[in-house]
Amino acid sequence: MNSRVAIVTGAGRGLGSAIATGLARAGVDVVLAGRTESHLIEVAKEIEELGAEAMPVPTDVTDSESVGHLFQACLARFGRLDILVNNAGITGQTKLTDLDEDEWRRILDTNVNGMFLCTRAAGRHFATTGSGRIVNVGSVFGLVGRPGFTAYCASKGAVTNFTRAAAVEWARSGVQVNAVAPGYFATDINAELRTDPEATARVLRRVPARRMGEPGELANIVTYLAVQAPDFLTGQTIAVDGGESSF
């Protein structure tokens, strides 16, 4: 029970699954949070095969009681928490003039309020231990503008500045808060897009590397920030996007 312990939200598939297994490879025990328990159980099996411990906890990050249960379950099982990865997020493509308030709130509620609730809970624990690492998963869409993605861009832009503000507030408390801004990665979310060569080509024209990233590439950066990075590194957002945000 001396291993570091991480909570990863949105851990049931895609980038969240890759991040969770990446942390496990680094010797971190992982609490897997997400809406679909069956997905979490499958990821937990993968982690246990790597020799780390895993605990799936079905969680709605937009609900404060559900978030409270997540953190209580983590501490009851492991007795500690060292790392939080805020990965849970949703997207949607709608023209701004057609964007209704329910869709706006749906995206902001998960991507911003969910991050807030989990970070607040982690911060309260870290304040008692004098250490902790938080990695927020933003997006290249939080660094650039994209038509049809106003709500998503706004939510991921908020991730960047939330990260800065929390890092500044907690810098003297031994807590580091950083973010990653992934571009296009090959996951199940865009599997249908990748079956269409023309659509894929349109996307990759915006990416200087002319390819999508592999989930393990992002997991490596998150693991570095969560486990290996110096304490002096805080408040930063690292774009992992094949150069898209620099283009």
Task: Characterize the structure shown.
The chain has 247 residues and is of the alpha/beta class. The protein has one domain: NAD(P)-binding Rossmann-like Domain (Rossmann fold, 3-Layer(aba) Sandwich), CATH 3.40.50.720. Helix content is 47%, strand content 15%. The chain contains 8 helices and 7 strands, in the order βαβαβαβαβαβαααβ. The protein has helices at 14-25, 37-49, 64-78, 101-129, 150-170, 191-194, 197-204, 215-228; strands at residues 5-9, 29-34, 54-58, 83-86, 132-137, 175-182, 237-240. Strands 3-2-1-4-5-6-7 form a 7-stranded parallel sheet, with helices on both faces. The N and C termini lie far apart (46 Å). The model has no long low-confidence stretch (mean pLDDT 95).
Describe the SSE topology.
Layout: E1 5-9, H1 14-25, E2 29-34, H2 37-49, E3 54-58, H3 64-78, E4 83-86, H4 101-129, E5 132-137, H5 150-170, E6 175-182, H6 191-194, H7 197-204, H8 215-228, E7 237-240
Parallel strand pairs: 1-2, 1-4, 2-3, 4-5, 5-6, 6-7
Rg calc:
17 Å
What structural category characterises the helix and strand content? alpha/beta
What's the total number of strands?
7
Tell me the overall shape: globular
Please outline the major beta sheet.
Answer: 7 strands, parallel
Low-confidence segments, ≥5 residues, pLDDT <50? none
Reported by name, the CATH topology is Rossmann fold
- The main sheet orders its strands as 3-2-1-4-5-6-7
Arithmetic mean pLDDT: 95
**Helical element count?**
8
CATH architecture: 3-Layer(aba) Sandwich
- For the record, give the distance between the C-alpha atoms at the N and C termini, rounded to a whole number: 46 Å
Helix residue percentage: 40-55%
CATH level-4 homologous superfamily: NAD(P)-binding Rossmann-like Domain
